[in-house]
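Suppose you are handed only these lines of text.
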Amino acid sequence: MSKPKVIVTRRWPEAVEQRLTELFDAELNSDDTPLSQDELKAAFASADAVFPTVSDRIDAAVLSAEPMAARLLGNYGVGFNHIDLEAAKSRGLVVTNTPEVLTDATADLAMTLLFMVARRAGEGERHLRNGAWTGWRPTHMMGTQITGKTLGIIGMGRIGRAVAARGHGGFGMRVVFLDEYPPDAETCKALGAERRDTIEQVLAEADFVSLHCPGGGANRHLMNAARFKAMKRGAFLINTARGDVVDEAALVEALAAGTIAGAGLDVYEREPKVTPALTKMENVVLLPHLGSATLETRVAMGMRVVENAEAFFAGKTPPDRVA
Ligand code: DGY
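From them, the structure of the protein bound to (2R)-2,3-dihydroxypropanoic acid can be written out as follows.
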């Protein structure tokens, strides 16, 4: 029996590409050039499965491929707001993602941003590398204490909980959170976490607000000018979720006006473009969407796509089916 044909839109870690070529008739992207919208469409017209990632916009036009050869869309990543799920369903595609395996790496990166922005790490490093450091002095580059502060979590899913565990367990932080479907009472107790009914309540209490909700839909610009005003003066925003959850123009204004003290961002509204004003601000830490970027995690994500595809082509329901 011939192997299913799969098209992988970007380079994946070597160990996973090796596994893909063993199991499937795999078309890999060895030079890692992103596919155009037309090329993506052609992929759906020619392969049994397409494996895209967050940098591919899988919209209704791409999914209007004729004939639609693909039956599986195996997303390399947990977030899928770059995929038009309704269009995928209407074309008979099964859609999978890669939950769980990137929880720790993403939570670690949220804490990295929190520390960097609170302790002015990026700014300090630039200062030193630029030869501006003249020596220790009591008032030099004072930052903000983290231990014992209040951490506000918007979206208490897997990653939100992992950030809460790090903040509470590691740094004695009190945690307040917003989530429609909160963890059970025992989990909340272990995380030192108290639920609030509105985002404004979380913003009013938190010294650090960390976003862990999905992007798109009603969450687009959840953090807007009014919500920045609702944050404590001196508070920081951390975003490792999706760029469109934050109104970047309003964020720039809030930072410039001192409405909030700083921001640590890993995701942006128009990736890979970043609002130029942000790149000029010292009270902002900017990373290039590195949340899941550890070798261990990126291999595990790929293997998860492979497991889902193996199940699908064996006639079973893939474990991470989202549509
Ligand atoms: C995801 O998985 O959704 C990430 O943003 C990509 O690492």
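What can we learn from it? The mean pLDDT is 98. The two ends are 27 Å apart (CA to CA).
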